[in-house]
C-alpha cells in the first residue's frame, strides 16, 4: 500500500451538507488504510465537532471571507507544522484560501468540485486551477466536463465518483410504523422526495406532476389492480427536508388541490426508515452535481425517477435503475411516475437493479482507493488514479 501519508483537508463551510458527508467518508476510509488526516475547518462548525468526536486531528481556522488573509497564513503555518504531504481542498472558499496557503507552504494540492454549475473564467479561478492545484476532481463526468469547459487543463482533471455507505441505510423502524406516523395507509403508493427545500431541487415540479397524475387518475387513465384506485387517493408524496421553499411549496400543494396527498415531514434523521417505507424515489432537480440521495435510494432498492441533469443523469441508468426525464417538465415527470404507478413489475425490476449499480463505483472504499492513488500520483509514487471508468455504463 506504500508509506502512510499525512493529508491535510481544508473545508471552509460552517454548515453541513452532502459534501461534508463525503469528506468524512473519505477521512474514515483513509484512516482505515493507515493514513493520517488533519482537518482545517471553521471553529464551532459541525465539521469540527464531528472530527473531534471521531478522533480526527482538527485545526480550527476562521475563514470569514475569500479575502481573509489571516486564514491563509494560519493554514500555511498549519500545513508546515503537521508535515502535510498533500492538501485536499473541499469547498470553494477552501480552494482560494487553502490553495494559496498550500502554494506558500510548498505542499501539492488537489481540489474536489461537487456542483455542475459552469466554472467561470475569472482571475481567482485561473489562479486556483492554473497555479494552486495539481489536480481538479469532478464527482461525476458531467462535473469534470464543466471544469474543462471552464478552461481547466484537461490533463489536470480527474473524475472520482461520490459514494454512498449502504451499511448505514439499514432501517430501524418497521415500514407500517413509519407509514402510520405519516398518516399514510399501508396500501398507499408512496413517492419519496428528500432534500433541502430549495428552488434547485425542483420540488415544485414534482407537485405539479403529482397534480397532473391525479388528474389522469380522475379520467381513468391509470390504475393498478390491487393498488391505487382511479381517483389516485392511494398515491401519496412524502417530502423530507426543510428550507426556504417550504412555505411556497405548501401553498402550491394547496392551490393544486393535492394538499391531502402531500406529507411535509420536515428535516429527518431517519432517511433509511423512509426509504424502506416508500415505493418510488423522486429527484426532479434543476441542476445536480451527482445527487447522493439518488444513490441512497438505489442502494436501498428503490426505483428512481430523476431529472437527466449533471451527474444525476449519469448515475441513474434510464430503464435499468430508474427513469430519467427532462428537468422542469411536470408533464414528462407525471408520465414517468404514471408508468411506475401502473406497473408493479417495472418498479420491482428497477429497484432490484439499484444495489448492483452502486457496486459499480459508488462504494466508499472505491472512492478512498481512487483518492489514495491520486495523492501518490501527485507525489510521484503511483500511476494514474482510478476514477470514472469504474462506474461507466
What share of residues are in beta strands? 15-25%
Most strands sheet: 7 strands, parallel
What structural category do the secondary elements indicate? alpha/beta
Share of helix among residues? Answer: 40-55%
Can you walk me through this structure?
- The longest helix has 16 residues, at 203-218.
- The protein is built from 15 helices and 13 strands.
- Strands 3-2-1-4-5-6-7 form a seven-stranded parallel β-sheet, with helices on both faces.
- The chain is 42% helix and 15% strand.
- Mean pLDDT is 92; it is low at 217-233.
- The chain has two domains: 6-163 and 361-391, 3-Layer(aba) Sandwich (Rossmann fold), CATH 3.40.50; 166-359, 3-Layer(aba) Sandwich (Rossmann fold), CATH 3.40.50.
- By secondary structure, the protein is α/β, with parallel strands linked by helices.
- α7 (175-181) crosses α10.
Brief write-up:
The chain is α/β, with parallel strands linked by helices.
Amino acid at each position: 500500500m506504500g508509506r502512510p501519508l499525512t493529508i491535510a483537508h481544508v473545508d471552509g463551510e460552517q454548515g453541513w451538507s452532502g459534501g461534508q458527508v463525503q469528506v468524512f467518508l473519505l477521512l474514515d476510509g483513509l484512516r482505515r488504510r493507515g493514513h493520517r488526516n488533519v482537518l482545517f475547518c471553521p471553529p464551532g462548525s459541525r465539521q469540527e465537532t464531528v472530527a473531534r468526536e471521531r478522533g480526527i486531528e482538527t485545526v480550527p481556522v476562521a475563514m470569514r471571507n475569500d479575502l481573509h488573509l489571516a486564514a491563509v497564513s494560519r493554514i500555511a503555518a498549519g500545513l508546515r507544522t503537521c508535515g502535510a504531504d498533500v492538501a485536499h481542498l473541499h469547498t470553494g472558499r477552501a480552494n482560494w484560501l487553502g490553495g494559496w496557503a498550500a502554494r506558500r507552504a510548498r505542499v501539492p494540492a488537489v481540489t474536489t468540485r461537487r456542483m455542475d454549475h459552469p466554472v467561470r473564467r475569472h482571475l481567482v479561478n485561473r489562479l486556483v486551477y492554473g497555479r494552486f492545484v495539481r489536480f481538479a476532481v469532478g464527482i461525476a463526468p458531467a462535473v469534470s466536463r464543466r471544469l474543462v469547459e471552464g478552461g481547466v487543463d484537461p490533463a489536470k482533471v480527474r473524475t472520482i465518483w461520490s459514494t454512498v455507505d449502504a451499511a448505514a441505510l439499514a432501517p430501524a423502524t418497521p415500514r407500517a410504523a413509519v407509514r402510520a406516523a405519516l398518516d399514510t395507509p399501508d396500501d398507499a403508493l408512496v413517492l419519496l422526495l428528500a432534500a433541502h427545500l430549495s428552488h434547485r431541487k425542483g420540488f415544485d415540479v414534482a407537485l405539479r406532476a403529482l397534480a397532473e397524475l391525479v388528474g389522469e387518475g380522475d379520467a381513468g387513465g391509470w390504475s393498478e389492480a390491487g393498488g391505487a384506485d382511479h381517483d389516485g387517493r392511494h398515491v401519496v408524496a412524502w417530502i423530507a427536508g426543510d428550507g426556504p421553499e417550504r412555505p411556497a411549496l405548501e401553498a402550491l400543494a394547496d392551490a393544486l388541490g393535492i394538499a391531502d396527498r402531500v406529507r411535509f415531514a420536515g428535516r429527518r434523521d431517519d432517511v433509511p426508515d423512509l426509504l424502506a417505507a416508500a415505493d418510488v424515489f423522486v429527484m426532479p432537480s434543476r441542476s445536480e452535481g451527482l445527487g447522493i440521495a439518488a444513490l441512497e435510494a438505489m442502494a436501498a432498492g428503490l426505483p428512481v425517477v430523476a431529472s437527466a441533469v449533471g451527474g444525476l443523469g449519469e448515475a441513474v441508468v434510464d430503464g435499468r435503475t430508474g427513469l430519467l426525464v427532462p428537468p422542469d417538465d411536470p408533464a414528462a415527470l407525471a408520465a414517468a411516475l404514471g408508468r411506475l404507478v401502473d406497473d408493479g413489475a417495472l418498479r420491482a425490476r428497477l429497484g432490484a437493479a439499484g444495489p448492483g449499480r452502486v457496486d459499480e463505483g459508488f462504494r466508499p472504499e472505491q472512492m478512498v482507493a481512487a483518492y489514495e492513488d491520486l495523492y501518490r500520483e501527485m507525489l510521484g509514487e503511483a500511476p494514474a488514479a482510478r476514477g470514472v471508468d469504474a462506474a461507466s455504463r
